[in-house]
């Protein structure tokens, strides 16, 4: 396999962007090869030029204001070798989607909102394969099956917004694989997915690679995924390649300091075994060493108490638009968050984690249940009271870019909550903003920037600063770090923990990254189909998982070690059950068995396994 | 020969909405109706009465008019047929009177039948009209295009309340005229065809007549004078240089006919001030603070250059005038004193009357400034007049504020609107008016004290100046008794002068003709301002 | 979606009734008198008689109720009779115009064809030139095409039709003699030649109106396209190897049409309402001219009926726009 | 084995090996602190069309504002001997049919037209935005406000305007002086009869915007509705507003002249561009300049506003500003 001619040879690639402050170089002097049937992983921190390199291969940078300033992109076609950097547009159109396909980083925006999934899938097939509509449809159906989307028949007729984030990502993957490209570029394909589905997708790509000899360029920040997927690894740093080598070599004997640091910073499941309190993450850089103190709350008394929370979304239909069915997004959930402690919620995509968080804040109206924060009944408040109550509880949203107003300067965005509650005068607010910038370790000079001028990690820190501006007692962090690369992730988590330690803030931490959850939580709840199936202290849940779903989740977590790869056979894939029930449906209350003090496991109804 | 000249195209930019002149008093509708329906007698362009369906014009001499002036006998021409072939009889004439005089009908031409006691068919061809009181001038009912004869057979089910529902009849009346309606589209197009039963077998020369509505005066004139698409355009009142430019294309001419239309300024003799309570503004109760001074009114009139106004606004279609009644000749006063503008004399007059020049060149007296609000309807010529007059008045120290009102409101007579010409919530206002037929008496009679609009008569009435002179009222009362035409004329001239020269309650400006554009290819047109313009459409023919 | 439409239709009934009441009161309150056109020579007493003959003696609510009955009961019955030859509407008073004393609906039926052909066609032409101009202008933002397109459309929009129409007449009607300056509403298309005549007489009014409409729609189209061309899904479409044409005309266009649909749908009732000034300039006596004449003549029944028909159209077209929204953008939910 | 070791090693929470050799995480910010407005201005300046348009617009403003101070002929002065003149030293742009100076009339007319155009557009935009955003944002207001919009779309304009004159001309004239009263009346009349399209379009945009997450985020930090609309919604729907504004000015200038034919406009001795244009149409063949000049000024104004709007929209969008 290795002596085959490379499918792609990138030589001395340099990409420049024309910006207002002059040209900016996105990638500099980058060279690498990919052979057929090989998976090349590109890793590196945010903004290091990974996406730009991938886009250059399809010559899509040009549409984003970039330009391939130098270098050759040689691609082996049936007709012979072509330089993609100079190929005419017609040839490029023939290659795109057909011989080289790409899975984009943001699944939310990569799909056209006004066409059905089926149409978007069929398009490429019709153009490149000359299939009829019916044939293309049949093929699209197969593809959806391949990416393990439940009920593919129905999905074909659905629109992107009708799918959950994870499903959308899988549609994008199916689209890229539609024409069986010879090179598949995956730009962070699994960031939005929970571990079980991530494992399925990775297995699928791996199988295609093996079966069809497809080459894969895999971009990710998740070292565990790299370990699972890669044949060879390219490490990038600020637009340059710093190291390249086979996966084993990179993981066992990294030569460059950057690579070493990167590897070392990766949290690994199980490393907290035996410890009670959460501890800060390892950091990559010197001068950023966190105090190695575990986070031990001083007074673990309950701050947030949620009892029998239910949130249902109506599904309307019929002539009179009556509610014909309901999405039982959150079903009889009870949990308690102590002051100064962190409760994490984990579970697969669409199981109701975000909805739980939003219901507590009443950003969606819960159907029933009780929520009390520091003794105040949140659900009984009127609009004015609610606004007051929100001062004490803040949310960090799943997608930092989407949750920041693109038209507003960072300064104003952070000032806004203080303005809303009339805190301080102008000068005092400015002081506080400056302090917050220091706190989240952003240079004060960034204050006048706009969200799109920051990297993903920086944006996330702005979201955190905004949440902190009011000195809340509770922060709900919804996937606050999943989009971040290892180094930034560590910084952000450490920041949160430090704040928790200093200010006694409580946190409801929502994540699908089990390794991170292990690192930060005091307590952990595992959700499935709207219910908490298991809840307890971190040690109880991680070290003695009881519920079958919890066990499955743990098993699916990838390990950052190329020698301990999981194969598809290790994972038992099963279709996801639907949370939609007819209107009259009254689900049984959740009954728990207390296996140990504070460690509850769902017994009735049997939701899983 | 009948029908040999093909089609004649007439454009009426105000489109006719009905063919029945008894249901609409609009000139456009009367003109359209006159193509089909005919009266017993018509007015000539000179204002004389000539027989149409009547065999002769009744007079005391030929016994047609009784000695006591209370009955008129009309003799009809024998052998006339309706366009459906049935004979035209005296019954139809009597029916027409019944039709219009029906109290439920809302007849628009009721005024024509004013004072008529009854109309009877004496025999097949004789009609007797009986008046309530002696009538020196009996030529109103059945004379002129406003009161033509309807066919009894067609309209007998359309009396009273049913009148407006007879759409078919109102749009396609059977007539005795030169043409019959082929298709009627309200406010749009009417197509006519030559009447096969028309009394003169050689007429009309045209086989069809198309009457198109819509657009504006300029477009209508353009269609005749520049593109030649049409042969005749009604009411092409445009500024003289525009007309001259269009005529230069050599396709036709703009012709004018003079009737009795006079553009004038009414001076409000009562106080329109908005500080008065509603219902008392512009009523006799409160005299006007400045305009009751005759010197001021006179000065206003003297400052105007009527010659120039005519030249700019109407060209050949106008004549400067000092009279409210410019015609017929017997009634037209010799009053020409106002025709020369005299600013200096006007100033002197005001000085003499104690109006001294104050701040900003505006005259004042006893704390009252000579400031006037001058209103008129929206109309390009009137706005030019306003601008000119404003300037002249400013030269004699009178400040003028201008105001314009939408014509449909200004002339709309809505008692609820403050902007009608009758309410006259302004100091001076300008508009034009005329009288019908050739007897100005009723016209002058509308300037008496009791005809002043006010809340008690729902602001109807035409004495908009609120002119009130007992002497005038007395003379009007006397006039009804006078029979001798010469004496009547002299009396009329006296009344006219009272209103204009003596009191300046009304300041006449321009004697206006009605203008129409006529293609060079159209012959036989005789413009007529006293009757329908198409009164002689039967004589029209193509000029090769 | 269907249920949404039904619900909105049901809601439309009270809305329209309310609108009709407001229009009636507005017409009632606004100054003017149906006898405004009557020459001043007609004495006031006669005018008073005429006014009573028009039924104006009654209180406003009686007349409103009568109008409602005529509009919703008598007229439908009449047309039913016309179609099926029955006689239900015998002896019932239809809505009669003050001006012409003829049934309002007959006049409207007479006017509808020319309005629809001229104004409707111009709107169609306008939309058909506006969309490509908007699309290309946005795709090639700040190119020569865009600059010229912007220039022409802004000038086209800022010059009123009473001006452009006359310029057209002078140039093409008088100087070049290509087209007639007066529209013949009685013209019937029977063969090829008469069709050509029809085309020639429609050319100028359609061109003038189309220019005006296109100017406005193309601006909105361009703005909307610009917003959408920057979206991520465009990149995805390109990555599939679709040609630029498909990317722009399918993916971007469909998204950009969403706001433009509102503009187009809002403009459609105006098609039925006619283009008052253009109809006037070219003597196309359509509904616009009818309405303006009726207003000037204070022809209450005519104005009321026409306006109400427009109201019905407006309500239905906003509903259609809302439904189209849903068709074009599946994210929009109806609840 | 190695695996195990790695964990042990890392668990000490120290900096990772090799970290000392790495450069600091964030490069110090190079861009100096910028003010938002200066930034927008800078971007605006780089938009050639917009700058040109701005210069033109300012020139037009100066023409109508300062012009009359330099060219002091009274626009209403009738010099009957000098009527219908062509370009000359005494009357650089000729005279009209009454011998009034065209240059002076264009300057005076521009004052009125621009004032009316800009204010009426502002009124219509404000109303349209308020109602459009209100109904898009507040679900409860949606139905009533949209029905209101339909009502206004359905109302016959002419009778409405006539009614307004009847009701308000005198009271307003008394309170503000005739010119002021008329101005208010006209601006009001145009404003309340031309906001509907803007409202409908904005409602659609807001409906879409409301689904965006940053609106939810703003809610969670307790942003009250007015601030939400002002700070978050409005700036994000600027694009259709800009288009509506441009088209609105043109319509308002023309509508003003149409109003004067209802007697609703300014007194007849008050020239405005729209009226100058209308009055000259009949004489277009004889005196073409009299139509061309006001037509040109209206078009130039609308064009310049359009380009300024374009530039402003680009400048206001931080995502394109970088380019
Ligand atoms: N359209 C653009 N205009 C200007 N600069 C750009 C543009 N796109 C990317 N860049 C710059 O190019 C560099 C590389 O960006 P790229 O998107 O490849 O990062 P990445 O490695 O994919 O990061 P992430 O993990 O956050 O996706 C960054 O510094 C970014 O600022
Ligand atoms: N506004 C809504 N209307 C209808 N259904 C909704 C709505 N929001 C969420 N849901 C449904 O509720 C369920 C739970 O959604 P939620 O967003 O809470 O999932 P999650 O656990 O946060 O998933 P992820 O990991 O993908 O973020 C899903 O089935 C989703 O389809
Ligand atoms: Mg990237
Ligand atoms: Mg979520
Ligand atoms: Ni299980």
Summarize the structure in words.
Chain C: It is found in: Cell membrane. Chain C: Belongs to the binding-protein-dependent transport system permease family. The complex is a heterotetramer of chains A (609), B (544), C (335) and D (323). Helices cover 32% and strands 27% of the residues of chain A. Chain A is of the alpha/beta class and 609 residues long. In chain A, α4 (117-129) crosses α5 (133-146) and α16 (456-468) packs parallel to α17 (486-503). The radius of gyration of chain A is 25 Å and the shape is globular. With 544 residues, chain B is α+β, with helices and mostly antiparallel strands. The longest helix of chain B has 18 residues, at 485-502. Chain B is globular. The mean pLDDT of chain B is 89. In chain C, α5 (144-158) packs across α7 (192-229) and α8 packs across α9 (244-273). Chain C folds into two domains: 32-94, no CATH class; 107-332, MetI-like fold (Orthogonal Bundle), CATH 1.10.3720.10. Chain D is mostly helical and 323 residues long. Chain D has 14 helices and no strands. The longest helix of chain D is centred in the middle third of the chain and has 37 residues, at 157-193. Chain D is globular, with a radius of gyration of 28 Å. The model of chain D is unreliable at 1-21 and 24-33 (pLDDT under 50). The chains are: A alpha/beta (609), B alpha+beta (544), C mainly alpha (335), D mainly alpha (323). Chains A and D meet through α11, α14 and α16 of A and α1, α2, α9, α10 and α14 of D. The structure holds adenosine-5'-triphosphate (2 copies), magnesium ion (2 copies) and nickel (II) ion.
- CATH fold title of chain D: MetI-like fold
Rg of chain A over CA atoms, rounded to whole Å, is: 25 Å
State the helicity of chain A in percent bands.
25-40%
Number of strands of chain A: 23
Can you identify the CATH superfamily of chain D? MetI-like
Structural class of chain A: alpha/beta
Treating each run of at least 4 consecutive H or I residues as one helix, how many helices of chain D? 14
Indicate the percent of residues in helices of chain D: over 70%
Shape-level CATH architecture of chain D: Orthogonal Bundle
The chain-level structural class of chain D is mainly alpha
Largest sheet of chain A: 8 strands, mixed
Ligands in the model, by name, code or SMILES, are: adenosine-5'-triphosphate, magnesium ion, nickel (II) ion
Strand content of chain A: 25-35%
Question: Total helix count of chain A?
Answer: 20
Domain ABC transmembrane type-1 (chain D): 110-309
Keywords (chain D): Cell membrane, Membrane, Transmembrane, Transmembrane helix, Transport
GO biological process, one term (chain D): transmembrane transport
Organism (chain D): Paracoccus pantotrophus
């Amino acid at each position: 396999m290795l002596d085959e001619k490379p499918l792609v040879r990138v030589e001395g690639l340099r990409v420049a962007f024309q910006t207002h402050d002059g040209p900016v170089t996105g990638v500099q002097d980058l060279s690498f090869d990919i052979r057929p049937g090989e998976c090349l992983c590109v890793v590196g921190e945010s903004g290091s030029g990974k996406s730009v390199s991938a886009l250059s291969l399809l010559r899509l940078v040009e549409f984003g204001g970039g330009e391939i300033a130098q270098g050759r992109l040689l691609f082996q076609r049936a007709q012979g070798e072509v330089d993609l950097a100079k190929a005419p547009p017609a040839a490029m159109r023939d290659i795109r989607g057909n011989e080289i396909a790409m899975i984009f980083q943001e699944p939310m925006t990569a799909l056209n909102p006004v066409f059905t999934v089926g149409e978007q899938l069929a398009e490429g097939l019709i153009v490149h394969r000359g299939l009829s509509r019916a044939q293309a449809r049949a093929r699209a159906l197969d593809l959806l099956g391949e990416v393990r989307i439940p009920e593919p028949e129905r999905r074909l007729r659905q629109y992107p917004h009708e799918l959950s984030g994870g499903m959308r990502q899988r549609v994008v993957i199916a689209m890229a694989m539609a024409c069986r490209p010879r090179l598949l570029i995956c730009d962070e394909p699994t960031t939005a997915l929970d571990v079980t589905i991530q494992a399925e997708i990775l297995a699928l790509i791996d199988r295609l690679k093996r079966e069809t000899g497809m080459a894969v360029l895999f971009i990710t920040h998740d070292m565990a995924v790299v370990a699972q997927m890669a044949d060879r690894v390219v490490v990038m740093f600020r637009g340059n390649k710093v190291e390249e080598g086979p996966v084993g070599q990179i993981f066992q004997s990294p030569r460059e300091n950057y690579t070493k640091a990167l590897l070392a910073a990766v949290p690994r499941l199980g490393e907290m075994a035996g410890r009670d309190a959460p501890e800060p993450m390892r950091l990559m850089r010197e001068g950023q060493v966190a105090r190695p103190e575990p986070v031990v709350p001083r007074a673990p008394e309950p701050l947030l108490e949620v009892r029998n929370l239910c949130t249902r979304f109506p599904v309307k239909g019929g002539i009179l638009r009556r509610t014909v069915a309901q999405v039982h997004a959150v079903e009889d959930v009870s949990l308690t968050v102590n002051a100064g402690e962190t409760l994490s919620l984990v579970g697969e995509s669409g199981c109701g984690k975000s909805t739980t968080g939003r219901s507590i804040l009443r950003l969606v109206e819960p159907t029933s249940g009780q929520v009390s924060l520091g003794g105040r009944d949140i659900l009984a408040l009127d609009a004015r009271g609610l606004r007051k109550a929100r001062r004490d509880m803040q949310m960090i949203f799943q997608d930092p870019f989407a949750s920041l107003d693109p038209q507003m300067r960072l300064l104003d965005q952070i000032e806004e909550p203080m303005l809303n509650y009339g805190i301080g005068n102008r000068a005092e607010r400015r002081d506080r903003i400056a302090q917050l910038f220091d706190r989240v370790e952003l240079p004060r000079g960034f204050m006048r920037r706009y969200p799109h001028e920051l990297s993903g990690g920086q944006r996330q820190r702005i979201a955190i600063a905004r949440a902190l501006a009011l000195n809340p007692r509770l922060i709900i962090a919804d996937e606050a770090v999943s989009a971040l690369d290892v180094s930034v992730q560590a910084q952000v988590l450490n920041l949160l923990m430090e704040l928790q330690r200093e200010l006694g803030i409580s946190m409801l931490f929502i994540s699908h990254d089990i390794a991170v959850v292990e690192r930060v939580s005091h307590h952990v709840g595992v959700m499935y189909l709207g219910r908490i199936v298991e809840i307890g202290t971190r040690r109880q849940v991680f070290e003695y998982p009881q519920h079958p779903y919890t066990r499955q989740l743990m098993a699916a977590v990838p390990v950052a070690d190329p020698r301990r790869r999981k194969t598809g056979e290790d994972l038992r894939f099963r279709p996801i059950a639907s949370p939609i029930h007819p209107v009259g449906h009254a689900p049984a209350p959740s009954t728990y068995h207390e296996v140990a003090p504070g460690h509850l496991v769902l017994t009735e109804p049997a939701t899983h396994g | 020969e009948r029908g040999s000249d093909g089609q004649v195209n007439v454009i009426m930019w105000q489109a006719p909405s009905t063919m029945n002149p008894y249901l609409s008093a609009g000139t456009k509708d009367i003109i359209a109706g006159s193509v089909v329906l005919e009266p017993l007698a018509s007015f000539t362009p000179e204002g004389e009465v000539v027989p149409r369906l009547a065999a002769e014009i009744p007079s005391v001499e030929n016994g047609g008019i009784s000695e006591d002036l209370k009955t008129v006998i009309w003799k009809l021409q024998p052998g006339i047929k309706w366009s459906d072939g049935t004979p035209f009889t005296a019954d139809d004439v009597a029916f027409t009177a019944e039709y219009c005089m029906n109290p439920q009908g809302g007849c628009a031409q009721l005024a024509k039948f004013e004072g008529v006691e009854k109309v009877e068919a004496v025999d097949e061809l004789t009609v007797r009209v009986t008046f309530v009181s002696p009538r020196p001038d009996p030529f109103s009912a059945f004379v002129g295009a406003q009161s033509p004869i309807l066919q009894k057979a067609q309209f007998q089910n359309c009396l009273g309340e049913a009148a407006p529902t007879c759409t078919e009849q109102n749009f396609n009346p059977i007539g005795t005229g030169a043409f019959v309606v082929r298709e009627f589209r309200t406010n749009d197009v009417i197509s006519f065809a030559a009447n096969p039963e028309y009394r003169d077998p050689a007429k009309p020369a045209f086989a069809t007549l198309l009457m198109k509505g819509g657009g504006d005066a300029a477009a209508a004139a353009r269609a005749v004078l520049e593109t030649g698409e049409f042969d005749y355009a009604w009411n092409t009142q445009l500024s003289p240089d525009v007309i001259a430019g269009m005529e230069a294309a050599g396709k036709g001419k703009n012709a004018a006919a003079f009737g009795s239309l006079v553009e004038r300024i009414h001076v409000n003799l009562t106080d329109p001030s908005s500080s008065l309570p509603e219902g008392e503004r512009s009523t006799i109760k409160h005299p006007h603070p400045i305009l009751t001074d005759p010197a001021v009114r006179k000065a206003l009139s003297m400052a105007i250059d009527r010659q120039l106004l005519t030249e700019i606004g109407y060209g050949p279609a106008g004549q400067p005038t000092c009279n409210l009644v410019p015609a017929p000749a017997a009634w037209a006063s010799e009053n020409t004193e106002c025709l020369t503008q005299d600013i200096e004399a006007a100033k002197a007059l005001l000085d003499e009357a104690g109006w001294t020049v104050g701040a900003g060149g505006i005259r004042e007296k006893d704390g009252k400034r000579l400031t006037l609000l001058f209103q008129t309807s929206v109309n390009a010529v009137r706005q030019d007049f306003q601008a000119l007059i404003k300037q002249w008045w400013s030269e004699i120290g009178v400040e003028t504020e201008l105001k314009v009102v939408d014509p449909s409101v200004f002339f709309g007579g809505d008692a609820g609107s403050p902007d009608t010409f009758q309410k006259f919530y302004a100091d001076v206002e300008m508009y034009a008016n005329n009288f019908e037929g050739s007897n100005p008496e009723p016209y002058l009679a509308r300037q008496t004290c009791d005809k002043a609009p006010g809340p008690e008569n729902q602001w109807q009435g035409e004495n908009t100046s609120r002119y009130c002179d007992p002497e005038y009222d007395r003379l009007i009362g006397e006039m009804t008794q006078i029979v001798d035409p010469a004496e009547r004329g002299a009396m009329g001239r006296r009344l006219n002068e009272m209103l204009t020269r003596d009191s300046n309650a009304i300041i006449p400006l321009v004697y206006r003709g009605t203008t129409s554009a006529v293609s060079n290819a159209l012959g036989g047109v005789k413009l007529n301002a006293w009757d329908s313009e198409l009164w002689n459409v039967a004589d029209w023919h193509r000029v090769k | 979606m269907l249920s949404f439409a039904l619900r909105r239709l049901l809601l439309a009934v009270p809305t329209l009734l309310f609108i009709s009441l407001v229009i009636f009161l507005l017409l009632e309150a606004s100054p003017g008198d149906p006898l405004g056109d009557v020459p001043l020579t007609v004495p006031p007493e006669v005018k008073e008689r005429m006014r009573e003959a028009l039924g104006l003696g009654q209180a406003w609510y009686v007349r409103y109720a009568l109008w409602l009955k005529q509009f919703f009961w008598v007229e439908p019955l009449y047309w039913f009779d016309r179609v099926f030859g029955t006689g239900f509407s015998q002896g019932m008073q239809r809505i009669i115009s003050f001006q012409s004393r003829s049934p309002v609906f007959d006049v409207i039926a007479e006017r509808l064809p020319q309005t629809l052909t001229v104004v409707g066609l111009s709107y169609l032409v306008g939309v058909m030139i506006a969309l490509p101009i908007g699309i290309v202008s946005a795709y090639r933002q700040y190119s020569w095409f865009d600059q010229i397109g912007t220039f022409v459309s802004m000038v086209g929009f800022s010059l009123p039709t009473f001006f452009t129409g006359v310029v057209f007449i002078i140039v093409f009607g008088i100087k070049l003699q290509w087209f007639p300056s007066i529209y013949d509403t009685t013209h019937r298309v029977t063969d090829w030649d008469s069709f050509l005549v029809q085309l020639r007489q429609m050319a100028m009014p359609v061109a003038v109106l189309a220019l005006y409409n296109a100017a406005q729609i193309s601006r909105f189209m361009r703005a909307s396209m610009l917003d959408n061309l920057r979206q991520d899904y465009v990149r995805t479409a390109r990555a599939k190897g679709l040609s630029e044409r498909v990317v722009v005309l399918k993916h971007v266009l469909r998204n950009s049409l969403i706001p433009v649909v509102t503009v187009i749908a809002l403009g459609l009732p105006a098609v039925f309402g006619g283009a008052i000034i253009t109809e006037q300039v070219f003597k196309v006596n359509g509904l616009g001219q009818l309405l303006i004449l009726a207003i000037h003549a204070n022809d209450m029944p005519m104005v009321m009926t026409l306006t109400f028909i427009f109201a019905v159209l407006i309500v239905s077209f906003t509903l259609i726009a809302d439904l189209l929204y849903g068709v074009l953008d599946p994210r929009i939910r109806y609840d | 084995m190695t695996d195990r070791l790695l964990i042990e090693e890392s668990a000490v929470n120290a900096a990772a090996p090799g970290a000392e050799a790495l450069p600091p995480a964030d490069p110090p910010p190079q861009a100096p602190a910028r003010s938002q407005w200066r930034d927008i201005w800078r971007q605006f300046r780089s938009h050639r069309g917009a700058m040109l348009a701005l210069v033109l617009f300012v020139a037009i403003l100066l023409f109508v504002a300062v012009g009359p101070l330099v060219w002091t002929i009274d626009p209403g002065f009738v010099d009957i001997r000098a009527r219908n003149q062509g370009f000359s030293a005494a009357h650089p742009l000729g005279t009209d049919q009454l011998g009034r100076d065209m240059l002076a009339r264009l300057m005076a007319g521009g004052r009125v037209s621009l004032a009316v155009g800009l204010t009426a557009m502002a009124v219509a935009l404000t109303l349209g935005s308020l109602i459009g955003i209100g109904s898009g944002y507040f679900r409860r207001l949606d139905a009533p406000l949209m029905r209101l919009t339909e009502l206004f779309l359905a109302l016959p304009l002419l009778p409405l305007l006539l009614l307004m004159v009847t009701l308000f001309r005198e009271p307003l004239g008394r309170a503000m002086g005739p010119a002021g009263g008329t101005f208010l009346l006209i601006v009001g009349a145009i404003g309340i009869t031309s906001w509907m399209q803007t409202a409908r379009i904005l409602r659609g945009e807001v409906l879409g915007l409301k689904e965006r997450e940053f609106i939810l985020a703003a809610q969670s930090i307790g942003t009250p509705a007015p601030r939400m609309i002002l700070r978050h919604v409005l700036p994000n729907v600027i694009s259709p507003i800009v288009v509506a504004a441009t088209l609105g000015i043109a319509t308002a200038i023309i509508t003003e002249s149409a109003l004067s034919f209802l007697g609703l406009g300014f007194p007849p001795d008050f020239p405005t561009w729209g009226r100058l244009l209308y009055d000259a149409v009949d004489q277009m063949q004889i005196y073409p300049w009299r139509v061309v000049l006001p037509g040109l000024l209206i078009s130039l104004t609308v064009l310049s506003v359009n380009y300024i709007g374009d530039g402003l929209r680009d400048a206001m969008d931080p995502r394109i500003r970088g380019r």
